[in-house]
Amino acid sequence: MRYEKRPFIWDIMEANPWLSVLFILFLQSIFTMDYRSLWFSDEVRYADVYYQMKDAGHWLVMYLNGVAYPDKPPVYFWFLSLIDTLTPAEGSSIFFLGSALSAAFFLFSTVSFARTLGCGRKTSLAAGLVLLSNIFFIGIAHYSRMDLLFGGFILWANICLFKGFRDRESGKHFLRAFGFMGIATLTKGPLGLIFPLLTAACFLIWKGKLKLLRDKNLLKGLGILLAILAAWVVGALIVDGSSFIHNIFYKQIYQRAVSSFHHEEPFQYYLIAFPLAWLPWTLAIFAAPVKKIFSIKHWKAVTADRKKNLNEGRDWAWIMFISGFVLLTCLSIKVLIYILPLFAPLAMLTARGLLGEDGQEPVLNSKRLWTAIAGFYLLLAVGAPFAEVLIPFDITLQGLSFTVLIMGLAGLALLKVKECGAYKGLLVMTAAMVIWLQPLALQTLPSLDPLMSPRQTGEIMKEYVAEGSYPLAHKIYSGIFSYYAGTNIHETSDLAEIEKILAEKDNVILVMQKKYYDRWENRPEDITVVHEQFISDRPYLLIKK
Question: At residue 259, does pLDDT exceed 60?
Answer without folding.
Answer: no
